[in-house]
Amino acid sequence: MQQAEREINREIDRVNRENQRRVNQHNRRVDAENKRSVDAYNREVDRVNLENRRKVDDHNRKADRHNKAVVDELNRRLRAAPSGPRYTMAEEALADRVQRAVGQQSTRDVDAFLSYARIDGSEVGSELREELEALGVSVWFDEVAIVAGKSQARQMDQGLQKARAGIAVLTPAYLAGRFWTERELGALLHKDTLIPVLHRVTFEQVKEYSGILPDLAGFETSRDTVAVIAQKIAAAVLVPE
């Protein structure tokens, strides 16, 4: 009886050892396969990341070349062309100041924050945004950028922080001191990158609102079309990284 039990126990041990050997062998195969899969996945991730970096770098180089070409051509026409739209002396000084200030900034997400009063500035603001974007200028514009359900004030503050320059479309309603325009202008007022655009107001009227803005000069829709004003602004804010 004891001999039979010993035989049974030996057989059980043998079967257990064989099972363990097979389990170990299976685990080694699984580990090896998993390692091969992980290594292949990581190689593919590295390849994709490298390709994405190459594409981003290539895009940035092309964007810089485009910006430089646009700026060079705009400046040539706006500063030295014998005919066609030209900067006035005050506008040229404004463009030079903005261009210097923008060139000294760290990288920003957008080129310009567009501030306007919806009651009488929405139409000209929309047209100005379209003309600027056609020239390659990225614009933070509330009708496009504001996300419903989130704090409007916070989104505007973030937009101001993300932009290289600020464009204030000054209209009668803007000068009336609406809450949002006061908030935005207050953030932009003492910056070297503020670009005033006067629409249906004069510098004398603006002077009554603020004694600072007239010294900054600005662009006027009574003098130039919105398309020309967009060209003058683009020449100032499109600075290659």
Number of domains: 2
Largest sheet: 5 strands, parallel
Name given to the CATH architecture of the largest domain: 3-Layer(aba) Sandwich
User: How much of the polypeptide forms β-strand, as a percent range?
Assistant: 5-15%
User: Order of strands across the widest beta sheet?
Assistant: 2-1-3-4-5
- Cα distance spanning the termini: 91 Å
Describe this protein with a few key phrases:
single chain; alpha/beta; Rossmann fold
What are the SSEs and their pairings?
Layout: H1 2-80, H2 89-103, E1 110-115, H3 118-134, E2 139-140, H4 142-145, H5 152-162, E3 163-170, H6 172-175, H7 179-188, E4 194-198, H8 203-209, H9 213-216, E5 219-220, H10 226-237
Parallel strand pairs: 1-2, 1-3, 3-4, 4-5
Structural overview:
- This protein is α/β, with parallel strands linked by helices.
- The protein has two domains: 1-84; 87-237, Rossmann fold (3-Layer(aba) Sandwich), CATH 3.40.50.
- Helix content is 68%, strand content 10%.
- It contains ten helices and five strands, in the order ααβαβααβααβααβα.
- The chain has a five-stranded parallel sheet.
- β1 (110-115), α3 and β2 form a beta-alpha-beta unit.
- α2 crosses α10.
- The radius of gyration is 32 Å and the shape is elongated.
- The protein starts with a helix and ends with a helix.
- The relative contact order is 0.13.
